[in-house]
Specification:
This protein has one domain. 13% of the residues lie in helices and 46% in strands. Strand 3 and strand 4 form a beta hairpin. The relative contact order is 0.10. One of its GO terms (cellular component) is chitin-based extracellular matrix. InterPro entries: CHIT_BIND_RR_consensus, Cuticle_Struct_Prot, Insect_cuticle. Pfam families: Chitin_bind_4.
């Protein structure tokens, strides 16, 4: 299958689709494309039960070069718990301060050693 997309900047994007295969009532999919401007992407996924519904679980990556000339790559999974991208350019939360970790441990220890009084009237 050949697809041509117009990017709006006079540049054609020509992805190639690997295909879609059905096996034992579960749908497995694979997609990969490479564009003339250096973007590559690949995804593997399948549909499976998630709770009482059918959901798509996928993993893949995409790569491109930023306007500044820096290579950018993202690996990801997407499942019932959301979209989880990983890439060196993505922001990460700061570490939890030691004092906060100690206070969380203290609270958890007290909750386990004494019955809750929150529901008493």
């Amino acid at each position: 299958m050949s697809i041509e997309l117009e990017t709006g900047e006079g540049e054609d994007v020509r992805p190639s689709n690997i295909g879609r295969v059905s096996d034992d009532d579960q749908i497995h999919q694979e997609h990969r494309y490479d564009t003339e401007n250096g973007i590559t992407a690949e995804e593997h996924g399948e549909q499976r039960p998630v709770g009482n519904n059918l959901g798509t679980i996928a993993q893949g990556y995409y790569r491109y070069t930023s306007p500044e000339g820096v290579p950018v790559g993202v690996d990801y999974t997407a499942d019932e718990n959301g979209y989880h991208p990983v890439g060196s350019h993505l922001p990460t939360p700061p570490p939890i301060p030691e004092a906060i970790l100690r206070s969380i441990a203290f609270i958890q220890a007290r909750q386990q050693s004494s019955p809750s009084s929150y529901n008493r009237y």
